[in-house]
Amino acid sequence: MLFWQQIVLNTQDQSIMKFLTQPPRFLFFTGKGGVGKTSIACAAAIQLAETGQRVLLVSTDPASNVGQVFGINIGNHIIAIPNITGLSALEIDPQAAAQVYRNRIVDPVRGVLPDSVVKGIEEQLSGACTTEIAAFNEFTALLIDSVLTADYDHIIFDTAPTGHTIRLLQLPTAWSDFLEAGKGDSSCLGPLAGLEKQRSQYTAAVDALADPVRTRLILVARAQQTTLREAARTHEELAAIGLLQQYLVINGILLAGETEGDSLALAIFEREQAALNAIPDVLKTLPCDYIMLKPFNLVGLDALRQLLIESAPQTPVAMDSPIELNAPTLSELVNGIAADGHGLVMLMGKGGVGKTTLAAAIAVELAHRGLPVHLTTSDPAAHLTETLNGVLDNLTVSRIDPHAETERYRQHVLDTKGAKLDTQGRALLEEDLRSPCTEEIAVFQAFSRIIREAGKKFVVMDTAPTGHTLLLLDATGAYHREVARQMTGGIHYLTPMMQLQDPKQTKVLLVTLAETTPVLEAANLQDDLRRAGIEPWAWIINNSVALAQPHSPLLRQRALNELDKITSVADGYSQRYAVVPLLKKEPVGIGCLLELSRYAGD
Amino acid sequence: MTTIQVFDPALCCSTGVCGVDVDQELVGFSADVEWAKQQGVNIERFNLAQQPLAFAENATVKSFLERSGSDALPLILVAGDIALAGRYPNRAELAHWANFTVATEAAEPAKKCCSGSKSC
């Protein structure tokens, strides 16, 4: 039997998704960006609520779009979702959580200590580490029994893209271990005074995560090698910290019926079936659900209710309506980058929009023109070498590996600042350097080092998904303020932030898809960047079905849906833009990447 | 037994390793405090960014902050009286306050004062 026939049988067999049968108290949805975590988490929350359960839906993504999916503003406090009895939602906002934390520390002394002193305390508590720990505390508070959580039968977590989430789920163990090993007040407990008191909360969180009766992890993937491989890696990393109750959902599958007379649809179908047949071994034993590709955008209650139900009604499409799209290619966009001879090119955007692929395509295009390029990534989950799958003159590749960078930073501090200490002092410093806080600093320093290289050559940087990147920029801003404060009186200095703000040094490219939510997210990111004094140089719309001119009804419907999104980017949001097509082949390898940047339509 | 109280500026943590740059003086002083504790000295540290109430509730510290601001920290009280301000003490000074002598250990020279304030 062919794979797709199994899928059809499989979905006919059951009226309810396996991952939703006998649901435990905590359900975590995780996966590579863009696989549909948020849509599936929202749909699952609706389904449970509509069977009479009391459900809390929580987003741990600093760039959450749960609110957009429901068409309301949620934010950092629990609110009831209109029109769905029993469903409430919360978006953990690291910045807001940090503000609450700051107020708790500072409010008692406001008006008691001098204003300048209070201001100094607030500045001290405005860095990335405070932000991360404050958000983390909100997260663990939801995993313990309390007044806050007693009202809910189920708590559903829509998590940030993989790299960030693995860190979030590993932190309870990391902090517990750190507190365990720590020597009371001598330890670097970061900005959390009295973190000792949090110990029982962290221990309870670790227990809850490792308890299969209470916690189920749902790995969401697409029928693509890359997302399946990432699901396999996540499976192993989280199983290692005791999260053993795991399910797999493969989303957005194109069925055989859609391939008739359409070479693109057929290519996608064959590519997907090949990916499913080659599914990594570790995933084979997991209970698995399949969700078919839908012709509509997943926004609003009706669309969400249909997501987990098969045979969604098809909107008929007029087959002869022309899909016309004339847009600049990525290669044309690269002309403007190449003209400067050097500089930093940063690709930013929501997870899953193809930042890694496009960063590789831009680097290949520049190197192909004989220009020196360093391609790198700050995304712990990115795999540039898998995407490039080859070598090219003028092109070097690296990655900022948080573990390696943290180790390098620790060693560096011990070798320099710790050089003259006695044994005891050195042991104390080593202890402090084991604080999970140091990772933030180490990654920032690696980032700064790479930025400096862009004075001589091209540095193309694939960044982690939005939320994580915003935190990195936050660290960059905090560092800049600190340097600015210390360098008074006309001393010349240049911080990484100033380099990011200088359009001659840095070009920020926003990557999006021609779909409602990704475009809105990119626009939000653009606003955030502008607030930080960084003006995005261009937008890239990736995976365009419209540019590929499909014939299958489902793909034509999706292509038509794209056109007004592309117009809104071209005429509204961006100064300049490019459109990159959905290719028949997965864009892996140097030849394929060149084809991607030069494709101008059939 | 004499109590030594150290009122630190707003720090990420006692060694400052969480900050954007590690302050050598803080690393050294943290080691000195650990050493003093091993000698049985009663020594406490308060971080302005974590325990501002301890600063507000101590009249001596509060009026020091009002007069000189947080840039003048650290402030060291011995038995409640101001013993030193603007820099961290060395081992000889700690030993002197606690009424014991440092055997042969060379006291580290006091280094330049630094605000030590790091965002974390």
UniProtKB/TrEMBL annotation, chain A:
Keywords, A to Z, come to: Arsenical resistance, ATP-binding, Hydrolase, Nucleotide-binding, Translocase
Coiled-coil parts of chain: none
Provide the gene name from the record: arsA
CDD domains in the cross-refs: ArsA
- AAA+ ATPase domain residues are 23-242, 341-551
Instruction: Please write the reaction equations for the catalytic activity of this protein.
Output: arsenite(in) + ATP + H2O = arsenite(out) + ADP + phosphate + H(+)
Q: What is its EC number?
A: 7.3.2.7
Q: Briefly state the protein's biological role.
A: Anion-transporting ATPase.
Q: Which Pfam families match?
A: ArsA_ATPase
Presence of keyword Ligase: no
Q: What is this protein called?
A: Arsenical pump-driving ATPase
Family the entry assigns: Belongs to the arsA ATPase family.
Q: Which organism is it from?
A: Crenothrix polyspora
InterPro entries, A to Z: AAA+_ATPase, Ars_ATPase, ArsA/GET3_ATPase-like, ATPase_ArsA/GET3, P-loop_NTPase
Q: Which GO terms describe its molecular function?
A: ATP binding; ATP hydrolysis activity; ATPase-coupled arsenite transmembrane transporter activity
From TrEMBL, chain B:
**MF GO annotations:** DNA binding
Entries under InterPro entries matching the protein: Arsenical-R_ArsD
| One Gene Ontology term from the biological process aspect of the record | negative regulation of DNA-templated transcription
Please state what the protein is called.
Arsenical resistance operon trans-acting repressor ArsD
Organismal lineage = Bacteria, Pseudomonadati, Pseudomonadota, Gammaproteobacteria, Methylococcales
